[in-house]
Amino acid sequence: MKKLFALVCLSWLLIGRAFAYDFVVAQDGSGNYKTVQEAFNAVPDFRKKVTTIFIKKGVYKEKLVLAGSKNLVKIIGEDLRNTILTYDDYNQKKNIFGEDKGTSGSSSIYIYGGDFSAENVTFQNSSGPVGQAVAVWVAGDKARFKNCRFLGFQDTLYTYGYGSRQYYKDCYIEGTVDFIFGSSTAWFEDCTIFCKQNGYVTAASTPDSTRYGYVFKNCKITGDAPTGSFYLGRPWRPYAKTVYLNCELGPHIKPEGWDHWGNENNKKTAYYAEYQNKGKGFQPKQRVPWSHQLTDQEAKEYTRDKVLRNWNPEKE
Question: Most CB atoms within 10 A, among 118, 168, 225, 315?
């Protein structure tokens, strides 16, 4: 009886695994599709339920587009470091007409669909230190990334979407110049931000009508960049907003902290702030005078619910 019971339990476990995902992507042909783009294309337009896509280990060199009609798509990698979505376009690389692809044209993946989720996946732009080269371009609202890696140099992560809310939890993001940039509202929690060479962690372009831009909570701002070689941010657009809360800042962060991108007016419109940071890179008395150290009362305005406008990213 015990053997029979064990066999029944095993059969149910196997059945459960077989139906755990809607699609499986595997380069060896053991899944439903061999490429990620094929799986994206197979998602029914405007489906009202979550479509789960399991991606087996492998390096998938594809320039990916998740269309705006593909909502509620969730991708899960088999292994964080060995499930890699990558491409090698960059700003000055030529298209078929001999024109520069541009920063937006350089991305390895474009995410237009709303309510997108990714777990255990590495996103990469593999073109190297050749100028602007985006790994991930996110336009859709309510985008979630958990335990993901974002690899690149300049302009690694483009939070493109106007009005888009984005959530990054337990992620690793690396780069050089402006490697987290764009107009979206994004909450980064328990993330490792890895600074390479020298540059700027962020280049927000927060619209003047948007209350919150980037908020980093309990993040580790580290890297192998030289001491005093990185700014926490600079304003790509005048009303850029970036706040670091309870973060650990490495010695590569410049004492002045923030840059105004050569425009004196940006000092009046950009909003840059910190709250109870720590580490060798946290030198509040040497910060630029137009930045802010939040009071306890001011810091209460920076909760996840408020920043993400009552969207709970932990709820599927």
Answer: 168
> What letter would DSSP give residue 139?
-
Q: How far apart are CA 277 and CA 49, in angstroms?
A: 40
Q: Residues 166-206: pLDDT tens digits?
A: 999 999 999 999 999 999 999 999 999 999 999 999 999 99
Contact 78, 54 (CB under 8 A): yes
Q: By the 8 A CB rule, do 149 and 80 touch?
A: yes
Indicate if 170 belongs to the active site: no
User: Structure tokens of 178?
Assistant: 């402006």
Which of the residues 22, 115, 141, 155 is marked catalytic?
155
Catalytic residue, chosen from 22, 115, 141, 178, is: 178
243/49 Cα distance (integer angstroms): 34
pTM (global) more than 0.90: yes
Q: Give which of 73, 70, 17, 32 is closest to 50, Cα–Cα.
A: 73
**How does DSSP classify residue 226?**
P
3-state helix, strand, coil in the chain (%, to 5): 15, 35, 50
Burial class (CB in 10 A: 0-12, 13-18, 19+), 305: exposed
* Cα 154 to Cα 156: distance, rounded to the nearest angstrom: 6
